[in-house]
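Dear support,

I submitted the protein below through the web form. The confirmation email said the job was done, but the results page showed an empty box. After a refresh the structure appeared. I'm attaching both so you can tell me whether what I see now is the final result or a partial one.
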Amino acid sequence: MEKPDFSNILPKEQLIPILKELENNTWIELKKGENVVEYLEKLSSLIAPQIGGLTLFFQNYNKGRKWPIFFYRIRATDEIKNRALRSEYSYPPSNIPSHQRANLPGYPVFYAADSPGTALFEVLRMDSYEHNIGKSYCLSVWEMSDEKGFIFSNLMYDGLPENSPFISFSKYPKDKEPKEFDEWFTNEQKEGFFELMKFYSRIFQNDTKYVISSFIAHQHLYNLKGPHGFRSDVLIYPSIQLDKNSLNFAIHPNFVDERLKLRTIYELEFKDVILRHEKPIGSDMTIKNFAVNDYGRIIWLSRNGSESLFQKRMSEELEGWVQMKK
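What the results page shows now:
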C-alpha cells in the first residue's frame, strides 16, 4: 500500500478547539448559477488551512466477499416517462441542477437505502407525508453484480445513538486500524486523525442546508486523490429521517453503471405511515404490479399471472418490511 502524506495532521489537543469553531460557523451557500468549481475552492480555502488539509479516509470492501444487502431506491411514478428504461430508476442526469445532502449541481449521485422503508421515508419526509397518501411510487431493488471489491467512506464515526445497530461503525477504524497506521502517524497525529473523522461525520449529519455535507461528499466521491485517481465508490451515512437507525448510501454514477444490477421494480400505492410516539415505524402500502430486469429488458408483470415469481421476489427482497401488504 502506497504511503499517504499525513504530515500536516494536527495533534488532537490543537485540533479540537478549531473543529468546534468550524462546527459553529455560518457557511457561504451556493448561489443559483454560481460556478461549482469556484465555490468548492472558496469553501476549501476556509477549511483546509485551519485543519492541516482535507485529510480523507478510504476503506476497502475486499474482493471475494459478497455485499450482503440490496440497495433500495424510490421514485414517484408520475416522474417516470419511459418505464422500460433502466436509467429512469437510477441516478438523475448531470444537467438537472440538484443540490442535496451528498451532491452538488452537475455532480449527481445514486441515492439508496438499506431497506424499502428507509428509502420511502427519505422521499416522503415526515413533514409532508400526509400529502402523499394515495400517490404511486416505484421502488427499485439493486444488487452488487460481482465480488470484485470496492472503495467506500464511512460518515458514522460520531453522532450515532448508543442503541444504534450500526454503533460499531463509530468504533472503526480505531479498534481495527490498519497496521500501516503506525507507519503513517505519530500517536498525536493518529488521535487528531480520528477527531477529523468524527468532525466530518457530525457536520455531514447535522447540516440542514447541505452546504458542508455536499462539500464533504464531493471530496470523497468526485475529487480524485493521488496519481491513480483514488476516490470512494460508495459513501455510507445514517438516515436522518429514521433517527440514524438505518443506512443511506450515496454512490458514484460510474460505479452504478459498472457494478450495480437492477433486479426488480415494485409499483406501490402509499396508504399511510404508521407512527409510534410520533416517529415512523412502518408504512401501509399496496403493491399494484411489478417488473423484473431480464438482461436489460424491463418486463412488467401482473401479480395475478406471475404469483409464484412475485412471492419469490417478495421473500428475497422485501422480507420484514413492516405492514407491507402482499
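Response: this is the final, complete result; the empty box was a page-load delay. The first strand starts at residue 59 and ends at 61.
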